[in-house]
Amino acid sequence: MAKSTRSGMEERGRALEEAFFKKQHSKQLEKLRQQQEREEARQALVEASGIDDTDLIERLLSIGIHAETLAALTLIPLVEVAWADGHVDAREQEAIQKGAESTGLEPGSPSHELLRIWMRDRPAPDMMKSWQQYITALCAELSADQKLRLEERIIGHARAVAEAAGGFLGLGSKVSAKEEAVLQELQRAFHAAA
């Protein structure tokens, strides 16, 4: 009887060990999967933003910013500046397309199609308000240096769209007063208290 109890205990012991190691193995696999997903999200964010600052990218990821969010965050200011004077001309459309490409927006994607619609039909005014609220909240989560780099990137692209239309016959300011007002409004969102 002692022998059968011992062999039964050994079997139960092996079963316990197998269950333990199987659970540990599953945990390790899950950890590796999460690391891979984070790396893919980080790479997509780098490609979408053009930002090569590891600390900023990691901070954006840690607060839930992904490539799709960053694309919207970047494209809304481009569209708002383009519509500042009431219409979007061909040079502004081209500048917006370049800005979209720099965020990794793929032609034919739903986001790209939405951007095409926005270039044809002015977006609702509440889109700008939503963007301002979002950027203000986001900036509250970033260091001063990270906020500055993000602001430079987004406002820089928006200014490029504003400059695309140029002055009259290439003379005068390349940015209209209405476009400058929109740029200033965009910039204020980076400095508003959250």
Question: What does it look like?
Answer:
The chain is mainly alpha-helical. The protein has one domain (1-194). It is 76% helix and 0% strand. The chain is built from 8 helices and no strands. It has helices at residues 2-49, 54-62, 67-82, 90-102, 110-120, 126-140, 144-164, 177-191. Helix 7 runs antiparallel to helix 8. The longest helix is centred in the N-terminal third of the chain and has 48 residues, at 2-49. It is elongated and about 95 Å long.
Topology:
Layout lengths: L1 H48 L4 H9 L4 H16 L7 H13 L7 H11 L5 H15 L3 H21 L12 H15 L3
Helix pairs in contact: 1-3, 3-4, 3-5, 3-6, 3-7, 3-8, 4-7, 6-8, 7-8
Work out the count of structural domains: 1
Number of strands: 0
Which term fits the overall shape? elongated
Strand coverage percent: under 5%
Question: Which parts are unreliable, with pLDDT below 50 for 5 consecutive residues or more?
Answer: none
Termini distance? 74 Å
Order of helices and strands: HHHHHHHH
The largest sheet, given as strand count, sense and whether it forms a barrel, is:
none
Structural class assignment: mainly alpha
Question: Averaging pLDDT over every residue, what do you get?
Answer: 81
Radius of gyration: 25 Å
Helix share, percent: over 70%
Tally of helical segments: 8
What can be said about this structure in brief?
By secondary structure, the protein is mostly helical. It has eight helices and no strands. It has one domain.
Features:
194 residues, mainly alpha, elongated
